[in-house]
């Protein structure tokens, strides 16, 4: 598959929007990524252009994002980049850069976090089923196997 996988470091720009859909939980938020560079003339770090991405999370990742990601937090997002363009009002072109997230985490180079494993809901107990026998029953003597094949070839009288 020719997908564009990206790893983006930035700040959460909008509160994650969480929704329960028929296909499962989904969450999205905007991520601001600003390039910084060293300005020799000013002898200081200077902010460059800011890019905004819409980050989409699904299933358990969406649940975890809704529980712990907040506006302003530095995060690292890895996922598939999807760029969409549309024409609006006949002439204006509009572009959107979305990331279908595979993993999202806090940027620990800029702060600390305490990891807490997500608790999965317990499944109702099911009745224990016996393990199936995977062995094919067959004769121990290869001559018995030949006799069985000849028995199958005999014509059957129909009355």
Automatic annotation (TrEMBL):
Gene3D superfamilies: Nucleic acid-binding proteins (2.40.50.140). Residues 141-159 have a biased composition (Basic and acidic residues). The keyword DNA-binding applies. One of its GO terms (molecular function) is single-stranded DNA binding. It comes from the Bacteria. Residues 118-159 are annotated as: Disordered. InterPro entries: NA-bd_OB-fold, Primosome_PriB/ssb. SUPFAM superfamilies: Nucleic acid-binding proteins. Keywords: DNA-binding. This is Single-stranded DNA-binding protein 1. It comes from Streptomyces capoamus. The gene is ssb1.
């Amino acid at each position: 598959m020719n997908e564009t996988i990206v790893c983006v470091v930035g700040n959460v720009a909008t509160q994650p929007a969480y929704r329960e859909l028929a296909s499962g939980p989904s969450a999205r938020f905007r991520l601001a990524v600003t390039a910084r560079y060293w300005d020799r003339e000013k002898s200081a770090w200077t902010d460059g252009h800011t890019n905004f991405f819409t980050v989409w999370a699904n299933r358990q990742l969406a649940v975890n994002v809704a529980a712990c990601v907040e506006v302003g937090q530095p995060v690292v997002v890895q996922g598939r980049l999807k760029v969409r363009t549309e024409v609006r009002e006949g002439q204006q072109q509009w572009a959107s850069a979305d990331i279908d997230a595979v993993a999202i985490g806090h940027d620990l180079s800029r702060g600390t976090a305490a990891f807490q494993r997500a608790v999965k809901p317990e499944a109702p107990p099911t009745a224990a089923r016996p393990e199936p026998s995977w062995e094919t029953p067959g004769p121990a003597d290869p001559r018995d196997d030949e006799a069985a094949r000849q028995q199958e070839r005999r014509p059957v009288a129909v009355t």
